[in-house]
Amino acid sequence: MPSDATPPAPARKDEFHPYPFWAPRFWHGMPLGVWLPLWAENRFVASPSRLGLVATISAAAVFNSLATPLANLVYGRRVAAPPPTAPPLFIIGHWRSGTTLLHELLMLDRRHCCPNTLQCFAPSHFLLTEGFLSATIGWMMPKQRPMDDMAAGLDRPQEDEFALVNLGAPSPYRRMAFPRTSSRHPVALDVTRLPAPELARWKRTIRHFLATLAVRDDRRPVLKSPPHTARVAVLRSLFPGARFLHVVRDPFVVFPSTVRLWRSMNATQALQVDPGDDLPEYVFECFDEMYAAFERDRPLLGPGELHEVRYEDLVADPEGRLAEAYAALDLGDFEAVRGAVRAETRRPYRTNTYRHDPAVVAEVARRWKPFIERYGYAAPPAG
Question: Closest Cα partner for 25 from 53, 49, 61?
């Protein structure tokens, strides 16, 4: 079970679990109509060491462009009129705050479904190709995520944000593919800042993806995507009755962990080698924009629509905190899943540890002061 109670360890270098060059990347799910404009937008600039990856993404884009119309031909009518589902549950919170842990625990409940990694890799045609792709490329996937010890695989729960990227929606994750030539500032995090046509495109895309998911599985969808923290009002208007489960974590841990996350994504997913010198400021700006939007939207949520949990409390008593969330959000009888949660949370897990830089601690304390005070955190002791 994840715990921050482990003894301090020396700061780790930016070393990540191996990610073979031939393993699928998230950009392999783009059709040509998404991939070529993204590459052109970044002036066709790729690092020489990543040209092989550019070639495989381009080849995959041809496959996706052929498979998508076939999937639409076979399943188009069903996607246009999907089966009804319970309103979605959105797990929100900043990156590295425990959203993946919550997602994994909630997926122990057989009343829930979620998009898996393959469905987010191939969102435009997985209804047609999921079985084939699982059999042909499943062996290529690493067993662990590159930035931590969480399990990875094509059948594991995944962020729907990657599906939106592959479908061509505006997203901050486009920066992961081209970190050197993308904007130095968050883009499409708070989607209300988008021009009206782009916002409309974003709305159509997420509606279409959830309709496609419902054709595959009509249980309540549980979606986990940190960027959704900045989109609560838009999501609430798109999906009446939606619930939001917000997890927070010590920001003095979240900051270095998020910088490490983006470094790992640059190392394993990007088409450009980037030193990441601007990542600390990017993390600050994303947090600022995310929580400005969340606090703006919070008053719109009524009783039973939002529940919050601290990561530290969740790992200390996962059954108790999840039982509270089920009751607050009216998710059904928690007793039906208590045994599975108990068994899952007995497994050992070790989080990354960090040696705090006093200058970084001071900057986090200054810039994220409202968040720190709202959720009862404090700066780590000096030394």
Answer: 53
Q: What is the dihedral of CA 164, 293, 285, 37, to 10 degrees?
A: 30
Of 283, 252, 232, 262, the closest CA to residue 378 belongs to 252
SS3 of 16, please? coil
Q: What is the pLDDT of residues 350-360, one digit of tens each?
A: 566 667 889 99
**Using an 8 Å Cβ cutoff, are 366 and 282 in contact?**
no
Sheet holding 112-113, edge to edge: 112-113, 220-224, 89-92, 243-248, 306-310
Token pair for residue 247?
């997890």
As a whole number of Å, the CA-based R_g of the chain is: 20
Asked whether residue 330 is domain-assigned, the answer is yes
Angle, to 10 degrees, between the axis of helix 126-137 and the axis of helix 51-80?
140
> For the chain, what is the domain count?
1
Q: Is the dihedral of CA 251, 252, 257, 259 positive or negative?
A: positive
Q: What is the pLDDT of residue 352?
A: 61
Residue located via tokens 């703006």:
296
Q: Is 16 within the bounds of a domain?
A: no
Domain that holds residue 38: 26-375
Q: Which residue has the tokens 């719109």?
A: 300
Q: CATH no. for residue 227?
A: 3.40.50.300
State pLDDT tens for residues 328-347: 999 999 999 999 999 998 87
Q: What is the H or E stretch that residue 251 is in?
A: helix 251-268
Helix (H, G, I), strand (E, B) or coil at 90: strand
Q: Give domain status of residue 90, yes or no.
A: yes
Both structure tokens of 301: 């949520």
In angstroms, how far is CA 209 from the centroid of its own chain? 15
DSSP sequence for 33-84: HHHHHHHHHTTT---GGGHHHHHHHHHHHHHHHHHHHHHHHHHHHHHHSPPP
94 occurs within a structural domain: yes
> DSSP 3-state assignment of 301?
coil
Instruction: Give one DSSP letter per residue of 344-379, joined into a string.
Output: HTTS-------PPPHHHHHHHHHHTHHHHHHHT--P
Task: Find tokens 């496959």 and name the residue.
Answer: 63
| Nearest residue to 61 (alpha-carbon basis) of 13, 90, 103, 26 | 26
Q: What is the pLDDT of residues 129-140, one digit of tens each?
A: 999 998 887 656
